[in-house]
Amino acid sequence: MRDVQNDPDHRNIPIDKVGIKNLRYPIRVKDRRDGTQSTIASINMYVDLPKEYKGTHMSRFVEMLHLLKPEISLQKFSILLETMKKNLDAASAHIEVSFPYFIEKQAPVSRAPGLMDYNCRIIGTSNSSNDIDIVSEVNVPITSVCPCSKEISNYGAHNQRGSVQLQTRFKRFIWLEDMIELVESCASCDVFSVLKRVDEKNVTEQGYSNPKFVEDVVRDISKRLIADANITWFTVSAENFESIHNHSAYAHIAKGVLPVS
């Protein structure tokens, strides 16, 4: 049976990334408290395609994904990336695994438990020199109280929910929980899934006593990461969904040494 994908292509144009996107797949990820956690991931997998080939073998991506099954780990990422390059005759490979991660979190006063979900992503790349690059990403909801509003108002201050995206490269494994807790500790107050009245009073007053601009949030997070010898590179961005404006406030910082591409 003829394999059209192996036919030569005469347009003389290589493709940087070709593969599959948004494949839903069950995975297990490392959980600091319970060892592992089961979740559902959305997975993107790509390789480069040399100019002389018409297409790649899309079905092989799904077959090779079974190398990760069911647990996501840095070691398995490295194995999969190298296998993708080998089986698809590629010089580079790239994989992104996005998933909701759940943490049980107690309310600050009543200690009522609830599950918080955080959108996380692990990104892996292997280049033509077989260098492996891994990036961990967390997206963390926060609350912020505007320092300017508090300063100029006779009483009260406008506050809003926001979102912080943190990406890190590291020397040694870093827990998703550690990244999430770092972000939450640098907000006016963190977000909870369950709050009783005593908790609502607590978080309202805590936020009011700890007002922060988006600039404050990204700088406070960056200061902690710069002091951490395990972190080789990071990006952090904060977006506040303003409660009194029809736009968001945004700040972004990137620091560290980028890997060789």
The CATH topology is Urate Oxidase
Class per helix and strand makeup: alpha+beta
What is the first-to-last residue Cα distance? 38 Å
* Main sheet attributes: strand count, strand direction, barrel closure: 9 strands, antiparallel
Radius of gyration: 22 Å
Tally of individual helices:
6
Estimate what percentage of residues fall within beta strands: 35-45%
Total number of strands? 9
Average pLDDT reading: 92
Series of secondary-structure elements, N-terminal to C-terminal: EEHHEEEHEHEHHEE
The CATH top-level class label:
Alpha Beta
- What is the share of helical residues? 10-25%
Coarse morphology: elongated
Low-pLDDT segments: none
CATH structural architecture: Roll
Number of domains: 1
**CATH superfamily assignment?**
Urate Oxidase
What descriptive keywords fit this protein?
single chain; 261 residues; alpha+beta; Urate Oxidase; nine-stranded antiparallel β-sheet; 41% strand
Describe the protein.
Helices cover 24% and strands 41% of the residues. It is of the alpha+beta class. It has one domain (8-256): Urate Oxidase (Roll), CATH 3.10.270.10. A hairpin with a 5-residue loop joins strand 4 and strand 5. Helix 1 packs antiparallel against helix 2 (74-87). The chain is elongated.
Question: What topology does this entry show?
Answer:
Blueprint: E1 15-31, E2 35-49, H1 58-65, H2 74-87, E3 93-106, E4 113-126, E5 132-145, H3 147-152, E6 159-170, H4 176-185, E7 189-190, H5 197-208, H6 214-226, E8 231-241, E9 248-256
Antiparallel strand pairs: 1-2, 2-3, 3-4, 4-5, 5-6, 5-7, 6-8, 8-9
Helix pairs in contact: 1-2
